[in-house]
Amino acid sequence: MRPDLLCLLALLFLLGQTTGQLETLVPDASASSFPDSGFSSNFISGFSSNDSFRPSLDSESQSLSNFTGFEDDHGTCHCSVTLPDTTFPVQRVERLEVTAHVLSQKFEKELSKVKEYVQLISIYEKKLVNLTVRVEIMEKDTISYTELDFELIKLEVKEMEKLIIQLKDSFVGSTTIVDQLEVEIRNMSLLVEQLETLDKNNVLAIRREILALKNRLKECEASKGENVPASPPPPAPGSCGHGGVVNISKPAIVQLNWRGFSYKYGAWGRNYSPQQPNGGLYWVAPLNTDGRVLEYYRLHNTLDDLLLYINAQDHRMTYGQGSGTAVYNNYMYVNWYNTRNIAKINLNNNRVELTRTLPDAAYNNRFSYANVGWQDIDLAVDENGLWVIYSTEASTGNMVISKLNDTTLTVLNTWYTRQYKPSVSNAFMVCGVLYATRTLNTRTEEIFYYYDTNTGREGRLDIVMNKMQERVQSINYHPFDQKLFVYNDGYLLNYDLIFNKEPK
User: Which of 42, 186, 294, 412 has the fewest CB atoms below 10 angstroms from its CB?
Assistant: First the structure.
């Protein structure tokens, strides 16, 4: 046999002892030995003629390259083998490294997904917290709204109780009518308590009865002393025979706007027409939740329809901006979106009949009211017609008042004030006099400033104005009703104005 093959056999034997593969290579191996390596010549010669062993021999020899061998004259085999540095199965280790690398990449990919999920969970947790806070606020608002309704009613009943006691003490003659009124007021108080416990939302009927009782009490009070000099009567509706606003009533909550709690910005009021001063439909124009776009408005023929959300006419526009809306002579006037233009809309068909630019007017939150955005152009109505309250760059943000022709929207006259508009929370016009408000706290406004376009005079006032919510978005005055229609964080409020009976 060739010496090199004998050396290879010896090497394979050694490797088989190390790796446990000897039985596969040499199934009948015995304990014979070589002179140098533990193999016998019989073992070697036994394999010399076994052709079936050659494939294994050849395949194993491919992985072993550093060996030499020879047979000396005595027939002894001498082998020289250079073994690798380690007996580790290198190929398996390499495959293991490749597998580990693939697993590491997959793990990194899954780990990145987990990190994304953690971030999303954190975002959703914050959204959930915000939603919880909003729900709590809405719940509190609902409770505050109904409780406040009944608190106001209770105060009115108590005032009537005090008045009936005074009437009994000072009334001359038969007190039968007064006694009857006292019984009715006592029954009314009990009815309010029952209604509060049973149905906190239905306050319309009780308000009507209170109004009827108030009118009867006023009649009794007026007839209790015939010799008492009569005080000057209040100014006639729609007239300016008075000395200006000197006080304001407590607010009456009319309704939450029909679109819900989220629609905190907007305006509402009643159409005023000099030809039919006592008539006029009611309108409600809440802005979208962004506080900028006026897209939908609703009309009601009567206040009862508005209170009961019935017989409504819904209309849509795509160009309204801000809550400076006003209605006069069955036309709605709004600021056209993203411009200084004023649009005139026919309420009979919801069509724009005219648009005109308000010269030099600042717009798009340049000089809007404090805490109320997108109301740089505020339209108003009073006994004299249509007005617009705004600012210009030339006025450096101070309030500018212009009288408009309601037919052509041209400016008839303009007055410049010294009051900075962004420090004002809102404003309205009465008999050509601008009245401006400011915020004192979350429950109180103050009518603190006036400018009289009739005389050019301006000055300070201190008329306290209670409110239901924190921000007043708009104030509209109705000349015949002599009321303010206030949009207060989504709630529709009414105020009665009290005038100085002596003309200036």
Answer: 42
The reply to whether 250 and 348 lie within a common domain is: yes
- Could you tell me where the beta strands, DSSP code E, fall in 186-300? 245-248, 252-256, 266-270, 282-286, 293-300
Q: What is the dihedral of CA 63, 68, 73, 76, to 10 degrees?
A: -50
Q: What is the pLDDT of residue 62?
A: 45
Per-residue pLDDT of 23-58, as tens digits, reads 444 444 444 334 444 444 443 344 444 444 444 444
Tell me how far CA of residue 305 lies from CA of 201, 261, 281, 297, 489, in angstroms. Answer: 16, 20, 10, 15, 22
Name 59's Cβ contacts closer than 8 Å, sequence gap at least 6: none
Instruction: Count structural domains, the chain.
Output: 3
pLDDT tens-digit map of 167-221: 666 655 556 666 777 777 777 777 766 666 655 455 556 666 777 777 777 777 6
| Domain range enclosing 312 | 245-499
Give, rounded to a whole angstrom, the gap between the first and last alpha carbons of the chain. 141
Same domain, 134 and 180: yes
Domain-located, residue 283:
yes
Residue 367 has pLDDT above 80, yes or no: yes
Per-residue pLDDT at 44:
39
10 Å CB burial of residue 96 (0-12, 13-18, 19+) is exposed
Closest CA to 503 of 456, 460, 455, 436: 455
Whether 428 maps to a domain, the answer reads: yes
* Rounded (10°) angle between helices 204-222 and 90-170: 30
pLDDT higher than threshold 50 for residue 256:
yes
Q: Are residues 196 and 312 in the same domain?
A: no
- CA 194, 198, 201, 202 torsion-angle sign: negative
Distance CA 403, CA 427 (A): 15
Mean pLDDT (the chain) is 80
**Kind plus residue range of the DSSP H or E element containing 321:** strand 313-328
In this structure, are 218 and 251 located in the same domain?
no
Asked whether 390 and 400 are in contact (CB, 8 A), the reply is yes
Q: Are residues 76 and 172 in the same domain?
A: no
Give the model's pLDDT for residue 150: 65
Please check the confidence at residue 307 and state whether its pLDDT lies above 50: yes
Q: How far apart are CA 357 and CA 353, in angstroms?
A: 14
How confident is the model over 435-439, as a mean pLDDT? 97
What stretch of H or E contains 404? strand 398-404
d(CA 446, CA 24): 104
Structure tokens at 492: 């529709």
